[in-house]
Amino acid sequence: MRVEPLSGELDVSNGTWALSERSLLQPVWDYLQQNHEGTLRSPLFPVVLSVSTYLVLVLFYTVMDLLAPTWPSIRRYQIHQDRTVTWSNIGTTLALTTYNHLLYIFPAAVAQWLWRPPVPLPREAPTVSAFLLGVVGCTVVFDFQYYLWHLLHHRVGWLYRTFHALHHQYRQPFSLVTQYLSAWELFNVGFWATADPLLLQCHCLTAWAFMIFNVWVSTEDHCGYDFPWAMHRLIPFGLWGGALRHDAHHQQPGTNFAPFFAHWDWLGGTATMPPPTKTKTKRERDEKAA
Ligand SMILES: [Zn+2]
Ligand SMILES: [Zn+2]
Predict the structure, then answer these.
(1) Splitting the chain (290 residues) into consecutive groups of 10 residues, what average pLDDT does each group show?
(2) From the CA of 150, which ligand is nearest?
(3) Where are the domains of the chain?
(4) What single string gives the DSSP state of each residue in 218-287?
């Protein structure tokens, strides 16, 4: 039986420095378990993690939205540079998000907290490759599930009107539109985000990382900005849809159904590539406003 080293050590057998993959995440996992075990074992933890990640991201983008009209250095990254996010937009979307959380999310989380025993934590951290593969795998599965749900809820008129039309009230989305959803859509999204890591038998650290990543990229899809660090700029070959393509979906709702990757829309013939954004000059903006 071969004993895996827990820290980086010289692997004499092949003459290279072999850094045990597990050793990279084990100190982080040990620290979390030793200092926050009670919090991590609570069934409420994933919900609090997901909601707080969303609020931090939305706060960042909303501050950008409020500064953009007077700060050209921010406005140049806006997808629609003549668009202004108003306090009324913020109030309406925040009100529905708060309503959904108070009425559905938190009661479901508390019910789970009452009925489910605290989750046992494994002693070992995942290897780096299992961690990364888990996050990518969950993202691929979630992307396919939402693609099918989304296509169906656009193709069947009753489903669209009853459950999805609400999300399309905004043709030019901003970050708070991410969770401007009907309770049915929010339930599906929350269910897949929770079930996919279980389905793929991921470590809980991987599951939480996937939740954070999922909230990050969903919010980025709706943020209304084409920042240099956006996922569609980091992932090559146009494999990632991202903010520009999801913004195009809100303008042409028969296209770009997948939330993250681009391949299902390529295969289904529903992909549209929005025209490249360009920074408008003050003269162009003045002409358009006139
Ligand atoms: Zn959307
Ligand atoms: Zn849609």
Answers:
(1) 43 46 82 89 88 96 94 92 90 94 87 77 89 96 96 95 94 94 93 93 94 97 94 92 93 92 93 64 44
(2) 2
(3) 41-281
(4) HHHHHS-B--TT-HHHHSSTT-B-HHHHHHHHHHSTTS---SSBSHHHHHHT----PPPP-PPPHHHHHH
